[in-house]
């Protein structure tokens, strides 16, 4: 508004000091053409009067001109003020949007950095856990295979002894001795069958442990390889352009399968423990020992500890 007042004051001062008039018309001249010098000399007096005097300037009414200029100036000022107000509103909106965008980018960067850090932690612990599972599975495979081989050999020996006893029975004339020898031969057969059943279960467990070793070794290798390619959480430029979905697809499938694999391992351990107990009871019956009452089944949560709960059942594995 101050600017508007200054402009109006300047307008009134200009109108008071300088009269507003229309510019004079251009002076017109007539040019005569003569064929001889005598004709030109004779017409010379008339040529001096060829120039017309310029007409007097005619001034426009001052009030009409003032009102027109003032109206134009006021309209221009109003338009300028409206434009400035609109620009101010738009500029404030743009500033707010840019500030919000900056905050969102900062939040996104922080989230990406956190995601990168969590991914590194998960893959790191999975790589180490895979190595540990592989070592445990290899130890179990070796142990199961060794015991299965022993039991296979013991079963073969017991079978041979049973056949030998049957031959002795045929050579023994005393009925009482025959009965005792035949019972002993039958016991040897039962012992051989128990050892064979246990050997079969241990061989199956050894194969399952071998499969678990291969899977754990592969899982650990994949996690370690992907872990080496991950960008550092503080390297935001690399974090933003890293193809997380494609790179983590395989490790994620393996990690997601972990709980199910652990549940299967617990179930196999429980099943093996049951077989060990049953075959141990059959062996004791065969040799005339009264078996102890079977222990109640352990819940699934503690199934992983089932082999240790078998007590002295495992003590006869190498007998």
The Rg value, from CA coordinates, equals 56 Å
Low-confidence stretches: 16-34, 46-57, 298-319
The end-to-end span amounts to 111 Å
* Rough outline: rod-shaped
Helix content: over 70%
What is the number of E strands? 0
Task: Give me the secondary-structure category.
Answer: mainly alpha
Mean pLDDT across all amino acids: 76
Major β-sheet annotation: none
Which sequence of SSEs, written as H and E, runs from N to C? HHHHHHHHHH
The share of residues in extended strands comes to under 5%
Key attributes of the depicted protein:
319 residues, disordered C terminus, 10 helices, mainly alpha
Description of the molecule:
This protein is an all-alpha fold and 319 residues long. It has a domain at 103-316. Helix content is 76%, strand content 0%. It has helices at residues 2-17, 37-42, 44-47, 62-171, 175-229, 236-241, 244-247, 249-256, 258-286, 306-309. α4 packs antiparallel against α5 (175-229), α5 (175-229) packs antiparallel against α8 (249-256) and α5 packs antiparallel against α9 (258-286). Mean pLDDT is 76; it is low at 16-34, 46-57 and 298-319.
Offer a quick outline of the entry.
With 319 residues, the protein is an all-alpha fold. The chain contains ten helices and no strands. The protein has a domain at 103-316.
What is the strand and helix layout of this fold?
Elements: H1 2-17, H2 37-42, H3 44-47, H4 62-171, H5 175-229, H6 236-241, H7 244-247, H8 249-256, H9 258-286, H10 306-309
Helix pairs in contact: 1-4, 4-5, 5-8, 5-9
């Amino acid at each position: 508004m101050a600017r508007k007042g200054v402009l109006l004051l300047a307008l009134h001062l200009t109108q008071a000091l300088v009269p507003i008039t229309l510019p004079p018309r251009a002076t017109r001249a007539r040019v005569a053409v003569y064929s001889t010098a005598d004709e030109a000399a004779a017409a010379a007096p008339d040529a001096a009067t060829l120039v017309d005097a310029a007409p007097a300037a005619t001034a426009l009414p001052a009030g009409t001109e003032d009102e027109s200029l003032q109206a134009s100036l006021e309209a221009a000022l109003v338009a300028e003020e409206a434009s400035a107000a609109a620009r101010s509103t738009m500029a404030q909106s743009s500033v707010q949007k840019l500030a919000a965008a900056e905050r969102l980018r900062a939040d996104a960067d922080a989230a990406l950095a956190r995601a990168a850090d969590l991914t590194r932690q998960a893959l790191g612990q999975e790589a180490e856990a895979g190595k540990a599972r592989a070592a445990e599975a290899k130890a179990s495979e070796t142990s199961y295979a060794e015991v299965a081989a022993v039991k296979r050999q013991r079963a073969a020996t017991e079978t041979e002894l049973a056949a030998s006893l049957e031959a002795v029975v045929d050579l023994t004339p005393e009925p009482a001795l025959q009965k005792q020898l035949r019972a002993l031969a039958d016991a040897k057969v039962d012992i051989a069958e128990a050892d064979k059943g246990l050997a079969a279960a241990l061989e199956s467990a050894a194969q399952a442990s071998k499969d678990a070793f291969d899977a754990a070794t592969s899982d650990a290798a994949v996690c370690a390889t992907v872990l080496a390619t991950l960008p550092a959480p503080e390297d935001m430029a690399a974090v933003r352009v890293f193809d997380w979905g494609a790179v983590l697809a395989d490790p994620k499938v393996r990690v997601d399968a972990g709980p199910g694999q652990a549940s299967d391992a617990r179930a196999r351990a429980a099943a093996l423990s049951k077989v060990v107990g049953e075959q141990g009871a059959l062996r004791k019956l065969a040799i005339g020992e009264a078996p102890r009452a079977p222990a109640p089944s352990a819940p699934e949560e503690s199934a992983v500890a089932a082999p240790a709960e078998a007590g002295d059942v495992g003590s006869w594995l190498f007998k």
